[in-house]
Each structure stands twice: as C-alpha cells, then as structure tokens.
Amino acid sequence: MVLLRTLLPLFLLLGSTVWAQQDITVDRTMRIGLYRERVVKQVVVMPVKSICVLFADGERKGEVATTDGLRISVAGGAITARSLTLNVTAKRKIELVPRVTDGGFRLRISDTKLPERTYPGKLAVTVTAGNLMLVNAVPLEAYTAGVVQAEAGKEHHQEYYKLQAVTCRTYALTNQRKHQPEGFELCDGVHCQVYHGRNRNDSIRMAVDATHSLVLVDADIKLIQATFHSNCGGETVNAEDLWGRSQTYLRATVDTFCTAAPHATWTKNMSRTEWLGYLQRKYSLRTGDSAQLYAVLNYEPQCRDLYLGNTWPLVPLKNVREDLGLKSTFFSVRTEGEKVVLEGRGFGHGVGLCQEGAMKMARAGKSYTDILHHYYTSVHLVDLTTLDFFRDDSLAPNGGAGGPRSR
Ligand SMILES: [Zn+2]
Ligand SMILES: [Zn+2]
C-alpha cells in the first residue's frame, strides 16, 4: 500500500494504464429502492425508447411496447401484471428489462397525485409486507446524473456540477450497503441521495460525462464519505468535533468564499428567561453566579468553538443547535433589554464540502478538482477502473463519519 500511495500521482499522470489493465470492472449498476416512504399497491409502467421484455419469477413472458402500459398490482401476496396483450401472475418477482442500453420506463403510482417519473434502466417489482417494492437497476453514470439534477438543481456553473457528480458517485459507492437487508442498495430520498429518475439537463449530462467514473479516495485508497452542508459560515468543522470520530479528509478549513452567500448568516431572538431557563434546566447553569451569567449572555467566538462561553459544566454547542433547532453551532450571544439575540454564521453541520462556498469558487474560475481538494483534505481523484473494488473491501464503508451526508 505504501508503494501504491507513492506511485499514485504517477499513475494518474500516465492515465493509469498499467493499473487499469489489472482491475478493469464492468459498468456498475446501482439498485435503488423507489418510493420507500409510501405504501404502494399498484403502479402503471410504460417503456420508453424501446420495447421492454417482461419476466415473471425469472421466466420470459413476453414484451411490452412503448405504446402499451403495464399495470402491476399486489393481490393476495402475488403480483399481477397486465397490459393490452399480457396477463401475468408472479409469486416473487416481475421484471421489466429494456431491449436497448439507454432504454427505460415511465412510472406512475396509482391512486396518488404524484407526477409520473421517467427512469433509466430496469425495474424489478417484488412484494414486501403486503406492498409492492420497486427497485430500479440503473447504470451508475445515469444514476449520478439523476441525483445531481435532484440534489443540485438548475443553473449552476459547470465546474459545480462536475464536483457534485464526483461526490454523488462517491457517496453511492461508499454507502451501497445502507439498505442491504431490504434487498436494494440506496433509497431515493434524503436518507440517502434524492433521485427522481432520468436527468434532463444538458449541463449536468456534460458534467457527468466529463467526470465519468471519477471518485474520491483517501490516502489509503478507500472511498471517502463525501459529506456536505449548505454554508460553513467561514470555517468548516473537524468530523470528530461533530461525530466523535476523526477522518483524515474531513478537517476544519477556512472558507472565505461563502461569507456573503444567502445562508451565510442567521439571527434568532429569544427571551432572556427562555435562554437562561434552557441552560439552567439542561446544564445546571448557576444564574446567581455573575461570571457564569455574563459568559452565556455575552459570547463572541473568534473561530468555531465546541462549547458555549467559558462556563462549567460545559455546554456543547452541537447540543444547543439540536435542542433549539439552530441553523449552525457557530453563533454569538448578546442581550437587548429582556431579549437575547443569537447571531449565527452558516447553515448545516459544517463538515466536508460547503455548497455555497463551492458555488462561489466555481463562479470565480476555480476548477472542480481545486474545489474538492480545498474541502476534502489529502484526497485523490481516481477512476473507478483503477479500484479493484469487486475483489476486496475497498468499497466497504470508510469507517463512516457517523452522521448523515448533509443537514
Ligand atoms: Zn436511504
Ligand atoms: Zn463555507
């Protein structure tokens, strides 16, 4: 591994040809659980771009045309699938497989007002606890583009889309065992990464293509937990300060790019009684002690602190943020008569990549690689084909920073 680490920059420079020859992998398919937060009894599916082949319990039953629709329902523990020409019942699984590689399907959940969505790849439908379970088997690159569209939104700089593509792709592989007991890899909601099917944005498609197969690894060539947040307030946070476990690549770093962004500052007003009552109840603050009282009413951090003021017992700022629903742990405290004013900086947990800082850096002409290296310390950008990830445990979750990716 030491040799590998030493040679890595050289390999990257030479296009990794030697290494790649040893560890070529097939194009990775992700299995994404759709609509897991809903009770789904029936769906309507229509193939797009090409005919889809229908399988019931692994047996080929026929084809569904792009002009036809397939109604899939759960009935008495079995699954039925009906189209104009087919009427199929399966005990375990219905699968819909497009004839062409860029094919897919449109999907609508019956009896809801949810909009129809279009997905690339295959669909597998099984029954779990009396409801339909929908799993979309989607090529990693198409999945990455779908996630960038759902997570990043419209009208960003191309370099910003590129870094989002790299972090979303990395996150997918680092966390692929998150839903293993349920029979798929990642869900399509905020619990994992938001995914609403096929990307329709050309800039995102170009950014995903330009970063094809690129992921972030740490100094030990393990995929990283690419955590991010909305705005760091000028300084990011060490992973251990929030989650109690350090990561070589999630280190506190100064950020001068996000301090004028929309989520750079916040204010919360409380009554003096409310603020002191909270500290008294939760941390046994002695309001009779004038020094202690002064410390919690006049607090001005110069940089990110872990604890509020100079008080004992210690008041962890991450607990205060959680208890009071604050946007960040980075704030000052002052009084205005009977009012206590909390003036904060940033939005989110502060670990890893600061989205608004990254957007500004992209607009200022920085490359996506420079931006990633700014927020993730000592990481390498590598091609998946250079990772022997099907054979060993290099895809095992990277110790995990311990918390959710964002928020
Ligand atoms: Zn999930
Ligand atoms: Zn920032």
Describe the structure.
The chain has 407 residues and is of the alpha+beta class. The protein has a domain at 265-345. It has helices at 2-13, 17-22, 140-152, 158-174, 202-210, 239-243, 272-283, 290-297, 317-324, 355-363, 368-375, and strands at residues 29-34, 42-48, 52-56, 59-64, 70-75, 78-82, 87-90, 93-98, 104-109, 117-120, 122-128, 131-139, 186-187, 214-217, 228-229, 265-271, 331-336, 339-345, 353-354, 380-383. α3 crosses α5 and α4 (158-174) crosses α11 (368-375). The longest helix has 17 residues, at 158-174. The protein binds zinc ion (2 copies).
What is the fold's blueprint, element by element?
Layout: H1 2-13, H2 17-22, E1 29-34, E2 42-48, E3 52-56, E4 59-64, E5 70-75, E6 78-82, E7 87-90, E8 93-98, E9 104-109, E10 117-120, E11 122-128, E12 131-139, H3 140-152, H4 158-174, E13 186-187, H5 202-210, E14 214-217, E15 228-229, H6 239-243, E16 265-271, H7 272-283, H8 290-297, H9 317-324, E17 331-336, E18 339-345, E19 353-354, H10 355-363, H11 368-375, E20 380-383
Parallel strand pairs: 1-13, 15-19
Antiparallel strand pairs: 1-12, 2-5, 2-9, 3-4, 3-8, 5-6, 6-7, 8-11, 9-10, 11-12, 14-20, 16-18, 17-18
Helix pairs in contact: 3-4, 3-5, 4-5, 4-11
The structure holds zinc ion (2 copies).
One zinc ion is lined by residues 231-232, 255, 258, 354, 357.
